[in-house]
Write a sequence for this structure.
């Protein structure tokens, strides 16, 4: 993902347009690694979301409302004390010195604030967007640290301490050069001294560039990005410098970014602050221009951020679920192996019966008996224990047969139970993959408690009681039909047997865990329904299944009255004997109601 210095520069431009001159009216901390500033500027409220989630760091204007904890965390209280009601006088992107402009992935908010004595003071809020090293740091006017959302001690980092009263500086970026101060000769000499591919040399030597924009620069300059930089001639390097300088000037100096997102199969795969010409001829990639950097970042990060947050909150359930799945899979493998070992049991029954029939011919001490097998009319050789009589050998073989038969009967029952348990756990895993909020996780937690996969609370009360339960997805098809999609097994049970009528249509991915999809037909017969409705419902069933990443998924569909609940099975497990099938691409392009 290209959250590089150019993206930060485009974001700073929007902050300067909307925030300078405004006052910070509200400061909240909805997540342990996220701050939201509300700035009132000319009667307009502008919200700034600052997240230092290691996987999804961002700083962008937002319209989203997030609930805040009743008790504000300590860093939030420090911000309220030092910059609450402060005026935003500047927003800039510094270089290593902090005093000049650059392309570091750092945003400095300069804020004027009245202290407890009524004296006007200056504070800085530094937002560092550096992947897992991202941080939000509150600074005095002399750039000493007041506090940070993540305190870093000397034992955690030998590069820089982030603790109160320590001097603040931007970590050294490995001798990277500021492109705003780089001459053509310096550029050519620096790049020509690198043995790695040219596009790598660009973002390894110059501040603010990502692999995506480095490849784009090579494309525009007509330079082979994979050729070693020290193999490029002077003319190619000068062309590359001109392209780089032009892009940097466009975004960081002239403040004229061209934000866009790359989509592959309808999913956002990359974004950038400049138009990516290198992807225009790729039919598999859609380059979609956006109106602002804020819109670009929100469109790209919204789904990823939601998935990241819910994954963090479901860590305990996922850990238990993975352990249970691993245990059930091992148990299934052992039981199948044990069942296979009983396949030769009939041989021992035949040995015993033949010994009872022909054992009279033995005089004692023989190691085997050769006789006619009246089941196949062929000769058979039966191994014997020469210390035992014929009847004793027969008894031993029949006892061994009875034991294997009992084992087969018991293991067959156990095997069926294990397969049901594994199917149930896989269905819970699929439900967890599409969970969107705490309410969805509560439903999954309740199901795992109800079926003994996890223990209930010691006080005997379910935490989910009294909380609002999640609801199934409710879509409207292109032709106006209502479609319901269950997010978990309890919801699958509800949409199929409470929401649906006997004449409604039911869709489900064939032989894999997934959501039940119900189409409310309004009493119309199948022949009168539009073909597009079947495709859209099937695409939803494929999208909300465990095979959503496949190119094509086979979907079964039938009339709801053909469904029957599986006796003694988990909720949402059904059987049907009349159905049709269709193969579709997993897709979700319908409107949520």
């Amino acid at each position: 993902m290209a959250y590089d210095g150019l993206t930060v520069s485009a974001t700073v431009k929007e902050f300067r347009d909307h925030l300078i001159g405004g006052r910070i009216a509200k400061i909240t901390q909805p997540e342990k690694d996220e701050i939201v500033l509300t700035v009132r500027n000319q009667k307009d409220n502008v919200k700034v979301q600052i997240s230092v989630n290691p996987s999804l760091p961002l700083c962008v204007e937002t319209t989203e409302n997030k609930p805040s904890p009743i008790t504000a965390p300590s860093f939030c209280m420090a911000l309220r004390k030092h910059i609450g009601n402060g005026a935003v006088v500047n927003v800039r992107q510094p270089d290593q010195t902090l005093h000049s402009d650059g392309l570091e992935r750092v945003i400095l908010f300069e804020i004027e604030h009245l202290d407890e004595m009524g004296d006007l003071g200056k504070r800085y809020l530094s937002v560092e967007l550096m992947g897992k090293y991202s941080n939000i740091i509150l600074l005095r006017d002399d750039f000493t640290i007041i506090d940070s959302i993540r305190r870093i001690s000397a034992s955690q980092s030998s590069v820089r301490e982030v603790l109160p009263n320590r001097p603040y500086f931007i970590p050294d970026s490995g001798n990277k050069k500021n492109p705003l101060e780089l001459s053509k000769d310096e550029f050519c000499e620096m790049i020509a001294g690198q043995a790695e591919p040219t596009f790598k040399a660009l973002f390894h030597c110059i501040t603010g560039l990502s692999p995506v924009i480095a490849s784009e620069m090579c494309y525009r300059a007509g330079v082979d990005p994979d050729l070693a930089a020290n193999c490029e001639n002077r003319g190619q390097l000068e062309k590359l410098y001109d392209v780089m300088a032009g892009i940097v000037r466009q975004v960081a100096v002239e403040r004229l970014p061209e934000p866009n997102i790359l989509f592959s199969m309808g999913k956002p795969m990359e974004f950038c602050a400049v138009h990516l010409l290198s992807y225009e001829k790729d039919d598999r990639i859609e380059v979609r221009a956006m109106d602002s950097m804020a819109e670009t970042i929100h469109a790209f990060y919204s789904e990823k951020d939601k998935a990241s947050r819910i994954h963090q909150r479901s860590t305990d359930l996922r850990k238990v679920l993975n352990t249970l799945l691993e245990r059930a899979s091992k148990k299934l493998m052992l039981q199948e192996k044990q069942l296979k070992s009983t396949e030769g049991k009939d041989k021992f029954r035949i040995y015993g019966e033949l010994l009872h029939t022909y054992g009279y011919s033995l005089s004692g001490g023989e190691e085997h008996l050769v006789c006619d097998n009246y089941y196949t009319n062929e000769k058979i050789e039966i191994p014997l224990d020469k210390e035992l009589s014929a009847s004793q050998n027969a008894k031993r073989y029949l006892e061994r047969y009875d034991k294997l038969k009992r084992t087969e009967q018991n293991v067959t029952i156990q095997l069926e139970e294990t397969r049901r348990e594994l199917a149930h756990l896989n269905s819970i895993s699929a439900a967890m993959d599409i969970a969107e909020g705490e309410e969805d996780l509560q439903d999954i937690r309740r199901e795992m408690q109800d079926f003994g996969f996890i223990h209930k609370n010691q006080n005997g009360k379910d935490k989910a009681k009294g909380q609002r339960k999640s609801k199934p997805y409710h879509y409207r098809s292109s032709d106006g039909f209502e479609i319901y999609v269950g997010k978990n097994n309890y919801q699958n049970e509800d949409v199929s047997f409470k929401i649906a009528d006997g004449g409604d249509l039911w869709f489900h991915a064939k032989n894999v865990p997934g959501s039940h999809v119900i189409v409310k037909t309004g009493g119309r017969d199948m022949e009168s329904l539009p073909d597009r409705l079947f495709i859209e419902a099937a695409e939803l069933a494929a999208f909300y299944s465990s095979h959503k990443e496949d190119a094509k998924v086979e979907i079964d569909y039938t009339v709801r009255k053909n469904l029957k609940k599986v006796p003694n099975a988990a909720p949402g497990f059904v059987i049907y004997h009349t159905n049709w099938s269709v193969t579709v691409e997993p897709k979700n392009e319908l409107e949520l109601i």
About this structure: Residues 460-466 have pLDDT under 50 and may be disordered. Residues 390-434 form the longest helix (45 residues). Residues 345 and 401 are 5 Å apart (CA to CA). The radius of gyration is 34 Å.
